[in-house]
Design brief:
This protein is mainly α. The chain contains two helices and no strands. Helices cover about 80% and strands about 0% of the residues.
């Protein structure tokens, strides 16, 4: 009986630690995306650059940012 209780305690601890790690990784990724969206997408370009490369990168970063915000 004691083994079952200890087993469930270990299981719960592992699940909690893994969940906290996942949440921390999501928060870090959100911060990275916020930083990335606040500056130019391509070196030597402006923040408001409308070239296809910058637009595609900005669009992808924005989509990923919104997806992560919905999950949190």
């Amino acid at each position: 009986m004691l083994e079952l209780i200890l087993g469930f305690m270990v299981y719960d601890t592992v699940k909690t630690v893994n969940k906290n790690k996942e949440q921390k990784a999501k928060r870090e990724r959100l911060e990275q995306l916020r930083f990335r969206l606040s500056r130019p997408m391509t070196r030597n370009h402006t923040k408001q650059c409308i070239c296809l490369l910058c637009v595609n990168r900005r669009k992808k970063a924005t989509e990923e940012f919104n997806k992560l915000l919905c999950e949190v």
